[in-house]
Design goal:
142 residues; single chain; flat; mainly alpha; 5 helices; disordered C terminus; 64% helix
């Protein structure tokens, strides 16, 4: 990949990184830093209804999931920026073939070509979700 192309993708990656950082900051300010009473708008001295608490908990969990996904993308962007610096950007990490520019335009932090990405996703689907952390769910023997 040429130096001007690498510079273009570096700018694109930095722009995407800034957008995601702003989104995470918004999630923190809007959802995670407020108490349940503040989030519900209830300023009275009455306790919250159980359904309201459940909704607030769901909203917080959803926001944490969004923040976690954003953190993963930020990691992938940082890895892509390293590849730009090392001149390895734009090549698939598995087969070393060039990643199509159309793909990099849409997902500038892509590290795999479409064929290798499809294989990776198929492998993940076959494996299923990761097992629960040890000790988190007691077995029936205990």
């Amino acid at each position: 990949m040429t130096k001007p192309e690498l510079d273009k993708y570096k700018k694109l990656l930095l722009k995407k990184k800034e957008e995601i950082l702003q989104a995470v900051k918004h999630i923190e300010q809007d959802t995670l830093s407020r108490s349940q009473r503040d989030a519900s708008g209830d300023l009275s001295g009455y306790t919250l209804h159980m359904a309201d608490i459940a909704t607030d908990s769901y909203d917080r969990e959803f926001s944490l999931g969004l923040a976690s996904n954003a953190q993963q993308i930020l990691y992938e962007i940082d890895e892509a920026l390293k590849r730009v610096k090392e001149k390895g950007f734009g090549s698939c990490l598995v087969c070393d073939k060039p990643i199509p520019k159309k793909r990099l335009k849409v997902i500038p932090y892509a590290s795999l070509c479409i064929a290798c990405q499809a294989k990776e996703e198929t492998k993940r689907r076959r494996m299923g979700p990761p097992p629960p952390a040890s000790g988190s769910i007691p077995s029936s023997d205990e």
